[in-house]
Write a structure and sequence with these properties.
single chain, 144 residues, alpha+beta, STM4215-like, 22% helix
């Protein structure tokens, strides 16, 4: 199946829009953003996407449904001088925004928190707490 960049844009935008509408605790950057000009002394959330599969879910004459499955990864960076518990608290709050929710063709499933670890990022030291949220995105397309 040929790649359709609008599919990727649609679910990225829907997920990011939901996040920004419901989250103001820490600033967010996207995976290809270096955070330049962002004040991140209190921490930040880095958002990236992993697309596992995109294929026909139904085949109708002229109007098939494309289903994309993947994982949105929220990496919560909290300053090293704070407890890792802050990252776990933030991960729980973000999970609530997405757990079992359906919006703009995106269905989110149960997010899970991975083990946190200490890293250096942008010349500072942070705890990183990854939150992985599996999702499915359905879109009907028109074939001419």
């Amino acid at each position: 199946m040929p790649a359709d960049d609008t599919l990727i844009f649609d679910y990225h935008k829907a997920i990011i829009d939901r996040f920004t509408a419901n989250w103001t605790t820490l600033p967010a950057i996207l995976e290809n953003d270096d955070g330049e000009g962002l004040t991140i002394s209190s921490g930040f959330v880095k958002i990236s996407f992993f697309t596992a599969n995109s294929d026909f879910a139904t085949i109708n004459a002229g109007n098939p449904k494309i289903r994309t499955t993947g994982i949105v990864i929220f990496e919560i960076f909290t300053p090293q001088n704070e407890e890792i518990g802050d990252g776990l608290t933030y991960a729980g709050q973000i999970a609530t925004i997405f757990r079992g929710k359906t919006f703009s063709g995106v269905s989110c499933f149960s997010p899970r928190i991975e083990n946190g670890k200490e890293i250096s990022y942008s010349k500072s030291k942070y705890w990183i707490t990854p939150l992985l949220c599996p999702f499915r995105y359905d879109k009907y397309i028109t074939i001419l």
